[in-house]
Amino acid sequence: MIPGSSRDHPSLKQSFGFAIQGFRIAWKGERNLKIMVGFAIFALVCAAILQLSTTQWALIILGIGVVLAAELLNTSIETIVDLVSPEYHPLAGKAKDVAAAAVWVLSCLVAVMGLVIFVSRIVALLGFGS
């Protein structure tokens, strides 16, 4: 086989299967992912109730996707760190803490973005923005 050829890689169907399997694994083991999905559902319900514009919907969906992806990457980083450093090591702890901090910062920024969108929409609906 030629390195890098399509024969070295799983099919597209298999790749999607691996991704779904990864999400299921994270769902079973990560409390924070469940919390984030709960907030995502809440945000989507609020978006529907408030009848957001297409752009506002896009921003809410983008924010949800970015935060969930970051949490999945954080889970991956933590798993790799645990694999290569099963015993506690300060650098392993630092790597895990920094990865978690990245998700926290992103989550805070997306939450602020959501608040700006929802509050501005509520203000507009109440007629205070005119």
Task: Briefly characterize the structure.
The protein is mostly helical and 130 residues long.
Q: Can you walk through the features of this model?
A:
The protein has a domain at 56-130: Helix Hairpins (Orthogonal Bundle), CATH 1.10.287. It is built from four helices and no strands. It has helices at 12-29, 31-50, 54-84, 90-126. It is globular. The chain starts with 11 loop residues before the first helix and ends with a helix. The relative contact order is 0.09. The mean pLDDT is 93.
Percent of residues in beta strands? under 5%
* Distance N to C terminus: 66 Å
- Radius of gyration, in Å, reads 19 Å
CATH topology heading of the domain at 56-130 = Helix Hairpins
Second CATH tier, the architecture of the domain at 56-130: Orthogonal Bundle
Question: Sheet with the most strands?
Answer: none
Q: In CATH, what is the class of the domain at 56-130?
A: Mainly Alpha
Structural class: mainly alpha
Overall helicity: over 70%
Mean pLDDT: 93
User: What is the number of helical segments per DSSP (H or I, 4+ residues)?
Assistant: 4
Number of strands: 0
Shape descriptor = globular
Low-confidence stretches: none
From N to C, what is the helix and strand string? HHHH
